[in-house]
Amino acid sequence: MSVYGGRDMAALQAELGRLLGSEHVLAGDGRGVAHYEQDATSARGLRGRADLVVRPGSAAEVTGVVKLCYEHETPLIARGGGTGLAGGAVPLRGGVVCSLERLRAIRELEPGLWRMYVEAGLRTGEVALLSAGSGGLRAVADRWQRRDERGWSARLQVRRHR
Predict the structure, then answer these.
(1) Which among 28, 32, 82, 149 is least surrounded, fewest beta carbons within 10 Å?
(2) Which residue spans of the chain are classified as CATH 3.30.43.10?
(3) 78 with 89: CB under 8 angstroms?
């Protein structure tokens, strides 16, 4: 295992296991990790190597993961759906991949205001299906995001479907 900042990765793995449950902390040399070491750029040969993969289930757990990685001076790579084309979620030099796939709640759905707040693990295609079933609205991904009292949110352009 890698060592960052003079601390052993095994100690970080143990602490993350206590925070998230050991079933949500995967060792980088274990089974099922390859999926987290690439994104849509894998067709161009871009692959990384994660020391650990964590799958927090709440914003509070994400905060705990960030805190522990900071304390252990370990790189943290955030991962949404793995559909990115820029390699931003690929752990090129090891570290902890923080997969947001378990954060799938719909926080608010207000079809009358053309507004929906969802957590990071809900894929854009799923959001589009939900919006289509809500009064004929159609969601289109936009590259804009903001921070408010609910946390970070990406905006989807919502239009009336004719």
Answers:
(1) 149
(2) 3-99
(3) yes
pLDDT in tens, 27-77: 888 778 888 888 777 777 788 889 999 999 999 999 999 999 999 999 999
Q: In one letter, which amino acid is 7?
A: R
As a whole number of angstroms, the distance between CA 29 and CA 32 comes to 9
Pairwise CA distance, residues 83 & 5, whole Å: 31
Indicate if the pLDDT at residue 3 is higher than 50. Answer: no
Give pLDDT tens digits for 104-149. Answer: 888 887 777 777 788 888 777 777 777 776 665 555 554 444 445 4
Local structure of 134: helix, strand or coil: coil
Which fold would CATH assign to domain 3-99?
A: 3.30.43
